[in-house]
């Protein structure tokens, strides 16, 4: 090994990039023979200009600890979003390609996958107390190294401090009228430097998978100079419904219909989510 080079530990294989991803079969056929074949649902969005085959990813044993936030984007009640976010969290924190540890009894929302590597934490936008955008300064005009104290609103400073704690983000979003919830766009608009340069993943859901929301959000995150990974799972929700007549101020826990979960399992959604997670790890290891 040449002096100054970092040793690496392989998760599965070697890094591989394809300059063009023609469709789901490109991802399926790039895997080693000993891995199960994934059947990607047609709603899955795999159309970036460049994609990484995550069966072929390395990350460094010297990579410092990194923290990934999984963001619940909808704030209405009742809502399905927290349940979908929990599903994504459970899949990623039980990923066999990362040395996962179970959450500690004192932290239900955070799990270490390796003390040197990755932690996942759920952030719920409904708990951030963000009004409709009212910050009087332009976020991009503030000092890039420490914008937090320069905001004029206390809720902006609080939100800035939260976002700065994380190295990457996974936005779990429903599709509203071919787009994302106003609550997510509002939370993104409050900040700039806190997002800039950080890797981001998108998980959408809806009756057809939420692909339009993914497309819109990808453009917004790119405008914030985030490094959006190529794999963007779209979860088709056909059977899980919201309770009718729940009080607007009451948070109601929504249980996933097992038929939806089984459909995701059969179509390979869990594997696609893990691929997205490993893309984020690979992006973080470039830093």
Name the CATH superfamily classification.
Answer: Flavodoxin domain
CATH topology: Rossmann fold
Structural class label:
alpha/beta
Number of domains: 1
Q: How far do the termini sit from each other?
A: 21 Å
- The percent range for helix content is 25-40%
Provide the CATH architecture: 3-Layer(aba) Sandwich
Mean pLDDT: 79
CATH class type: Alpha Beta
Uncertain residue ranges: 1-57, 99-108
GO molecular function: FMN binding; oxidoreductase activity
Pfam families: FMN_red (PF03358)
Domain NADPH-dependent FMN reductase-like: 68-231
Region (Disordered): 1-46
Commentary on this structure:
The protein is of the alpha/beta class and 287 residues long. 27% of the residues lie in helices and 16% in strands. Helix 4 links the parallel strand 8 and strand 9 (199-206). It starts with 7 loop residues before the first strand and ends with a helix.
Quick synopsis:
This protein has 287 residues and is α/β, with parallel strands linked by helices.
């Amino acid at each position: 090994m040449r002096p100054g080079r970092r040793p690496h530990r392989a998760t599965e294989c070697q890094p591989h990039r394809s300059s063009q991803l023609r469709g789901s079969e490109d991802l399926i056929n790039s895997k080693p023979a000993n891995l199960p074949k994934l059947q990607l649902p047609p709603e899955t969005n795999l159309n970036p200009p460049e994609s990484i085959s995550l069966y072929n990813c390395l990350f460094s044993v010297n990579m410092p600890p990194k923290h990934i936030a999984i963001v619940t984007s909808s704030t209405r009640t009742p809502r399905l979003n927290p349940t979908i976010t929990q599903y994504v969290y459970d899949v990623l924190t039980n990923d066999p390609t990362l040395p996962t540890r179970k959450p500690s009894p004192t932290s239900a929302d955070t799990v270490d996958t390796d003390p040197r590597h990755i932690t996942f934490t759920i952030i719920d936008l409904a708990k951030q107390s963000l009004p409709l955008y009212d910050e009087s300064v332009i976020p991009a005009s503030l000092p890039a190294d420490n914008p937090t104290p320069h905001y004029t609103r206390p809720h902006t400073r609080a939100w800035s401090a939260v976002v700065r704690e994380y190295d990457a983000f996974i936005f779990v979003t429903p599709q509203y009228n071919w787009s994302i919830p106003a609550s997510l766009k509002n939370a993104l608009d409050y900040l700039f430097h806190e997002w800039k340069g950080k890797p981001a993943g998108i998980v959408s859901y809806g009756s057809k998978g939420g692909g339009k929301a993914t497309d819109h959000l990808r453009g917004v995150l790119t405008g914030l100079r985030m490094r959006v990974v190529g794999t963007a799972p779209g979860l088709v929700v056909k059977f899980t419904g919201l309770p009718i007549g729940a009080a607007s101020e009451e948070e109601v826990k929504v249980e996933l219909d097992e038929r939806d979960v089984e459909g995701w399992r059969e179509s390979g959604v869990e594997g696609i989510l893990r691929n997205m997670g490993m893309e984020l790890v690979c992006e973080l290891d470039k830093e």
